[in-house]
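Before the break, one more example. Copy the sequence into your notebook; we will annotate it together after we see the structure.
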Amino acid sequence: MKLTIVGFWGGYPKANEASTGYLLEHDGFKLMIDFGSGVLAKLQNYVQPEELDALVLSHYHPDHVADIGVLQHARLIQGFLGKKSPQLPIYGHAQDKQEFSKLTYKNISKGIAYDPNKKLEVGPYTISFLPAVHPVPCYAMRIEAAGKTLVYTADTSFKEEFISFAEGADLLLSECNFYGWQDGKGAGHMNSYDNGKLAHNAGVKQLILTHLPHYGDLKQLISEASTGFEGPVSLASEGYEITI
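Here is what the structure looks like once it is written out:
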């Protein structure tokens, strides 16, 4: 699997960047994980909108879904220009019926409700879900293909169940919206020390911190997470590519 980080800011994108969006590719299948503000513009540096095969969404906060509407229009317009593509499946939970209904648009995209209690097969990927601790229904994902595993925490504060969920993952893509001296529980987010604890106890091979705060010295997040995790720790950045 090849992961490309398209957007990584929490809440809203910094100037000329994007909030949450990750491109995962394997066997020619292009899967987007979340699709927040600014993601469509940045995505076109890597693949074109009509080339995507599927989307899977953790939850419906705007920094994770804001660009779905413009993605739908991009594929519609490209169809008018002769680049027709199949109806795009967008997988999301159905606990917010109003937001879920927006995933279906004409013959361009189709919202498909996943059952978070069951594994989801999407192209070459097998996806398992874990309820996150967040103000709205939100699900972490364990994505497996060809014997490799990516765990994406989505937006959440720490809970013990994440340790077994992420156990042995080749890559942990974990939200880190707070510094170590801050308590993110009330906002439904983790801090850097939470990340180090999770990565260490789950025995993951590598940790990438994402959903980053808009203030402070971001390198401090690495040093703080590294107090609990001895493996490689890095910050998400636009265009960061890693083969798992």
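Residues 30 and 53 are 5 Å apart (CA to CA). Residues 68-80 form the longest helix (13 residues). Try to locate both features in your own notes.
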